[in-house]
């Protein structure tokens, strides 16, 4: 067991530390002769150009990777994109035409609802593209094309490295769509690809010093509830931060688009209530700061995830976790890592079994 964990106290921590490798392996061989290639797509350039709607369907953590993808596909390729949990999608007669691309995201490749959604999409004539971690899995077999996430086997029930592999794969897919739609030149794609590859080293830097994350976790460990907030990409990643925390520490956590605070969640806040804010550099940074201020005025204990070099944030937050500067499009990759470590540190401090949380299964093959 100790050997299997590679010297780490649990699989979750081992898998969190594998993430730089996951980035590198997922990107390996993708840039060929200066051009981005996903030959497994199973679609011609003409077919890609015709896509006028994208659905990302998934469950759990994979659904959150879909929220990230929506931000990227819409920003880059300008294709309307919806993200939907598979259990809803399969029963609501979704609008699918031959120019709809359905992207099914599933670590295990065998989640019952996701498979049913794939079948539904194909019956309706849509193209299905799978993103999975398991070679030859049902999702891989039943999709028109597939990207494998190269996370390798994930043992901890709460997904970490698979999520990262999914986000990186979906980022590649978004770039391919943007290219096909004529929104990116090859030079732009190459520039972005280089920055995407750099995130491997940036994650290594985050993993090298986790003191600030552990301090923030200790301050929050006895709370009953926590709120994760962010805007744009920060909102997408907040949902995953909250899910990770509730899954493994049993601390009730919710995520909200920060702009919605005043429409409900702010009523929850009182002295010491943890608010975890994704406040990295982005076009909506100032807006997030004002949401942090309104939380603090109500006594919240604010943990901010911010960009290295941002000293200003210290005035607004009780704890600051710094991540390296990346463009906003790649912030889900860097920010997810400290949020995983934050959830794990709280779970460990609360005496929870981080690898095998109660009531949860690694893969859900029944409805
Ligand atoms: C279960 C797992 C989650 C996972 C979800 C979807 O709930 O505990 O970690 O995100 O299923 O699984 P999939 O294999 O389809 O990504």
UniProtKB/TrEMBL annotation:
Domain SIS residues, every copy: 44-183, 216-357
Keyword match Cytoplasm: yes
Catalytic reaction equation(s): D-fructose 6-phosphate + L-glutamine = D-glucosamine 6-phosphate + L-glutamate
Swiss-Prot/TrEMBL keywords: Aminotransferase, Cytoplasm, Glutamine amidotransferase, Repeat, Transferase
GO cellular component, one term: cytosol
Keyword Transferase: yes
GO biological process, one term: amino sugar biosynthetic process
Protein's cellular compartments: Cytoplasm
GO molecular function: carbohydrate derivative binding; glutamine-fructose-6-phosphate transaminase (isomerizing) activity
EC number of the protein: 2.6.1.16
Main location: cytoplasm
Subunit-structure text: Homodimer.
Name of the protein: Glutamine--fructose-6-phosphate aminotransferase [isomerizing]
Source organism of the structure: Denitrobacterium detoxificans
Gene (name only): glmS
Residues of the full protein shown: 242 to 608 of 608
């Amino acid at each position: 067991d100790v050997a299997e964990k590679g010297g780490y106290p649990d699989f979750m921590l081992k898998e969190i530390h594998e993430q730089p490798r996951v980035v590198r392996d997922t990107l390996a061989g993708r840039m060929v002769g200066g051009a981005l290639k996903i030959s497994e797509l199973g679609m011609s350039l003409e077919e890609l150009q015709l896509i006028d709607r994208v659905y990302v369907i998934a469950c759990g953590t994979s659904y959150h990777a879909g929220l990230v993808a929506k931000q990227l596909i819409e920003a880059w390729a300008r294709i309307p994109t919806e993200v939907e949990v598979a259990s809803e999608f399969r029963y609501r007669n979704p609008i699918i035409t031959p120019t709809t691309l359905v992207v099914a995201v599933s670590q295990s490749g065998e989640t019952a609802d996701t498979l049913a959604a794939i079948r539904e999409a194909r019956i309706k004539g849509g193209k299905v593209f799978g993103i999975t971690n398991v070679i030859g899995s049902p999702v891989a077999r039943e999709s028109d094309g597939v990207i494998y996430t190269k996370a390798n086997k994930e043992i901890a029930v709460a997904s970490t490295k698979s999520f990262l592999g999914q986000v990186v794969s979906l980022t590649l897919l978004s770039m391919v769509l943007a290219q096909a739609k004529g929104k990116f030149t090859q030079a732009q794609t190459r520039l972005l690809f280089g920055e995407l590859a750099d995130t491997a080293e940036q994650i290594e830097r985050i993993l090298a010093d986790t003191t600030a994350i552990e301090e923030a976790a200790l301050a929050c460990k006895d709370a009953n509830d926590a709120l994760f907030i962010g805007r744009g990409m920060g909102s997408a990643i907040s949902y995953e931060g909250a899910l990770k925390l509730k899954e493994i520490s049993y601390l009730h956590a919710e995520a909200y688009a920060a702009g919605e605070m005043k429409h409900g969640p702010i009523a929850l806040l009182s002295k010491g209530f943890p608010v975890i804010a994704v406040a990295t550099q982005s076009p909506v940074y100032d807006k997030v700061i004002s949401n942090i201020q309104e939380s603090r005025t109500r006594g919240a204990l604010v943990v901010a995830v911010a960009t290295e070099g941002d000293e200003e944030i210290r005035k607004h937050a009780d704890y600051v976790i710094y991540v390296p500067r990346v463009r906003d499009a790649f912030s889900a990759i860097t920010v997810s890592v400290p949020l995983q470590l934050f959830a794990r540190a709280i779970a460990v401090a609360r005496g929870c079994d981080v690898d095998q949380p109660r009531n949860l299964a690694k893969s859900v093959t029944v409805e």
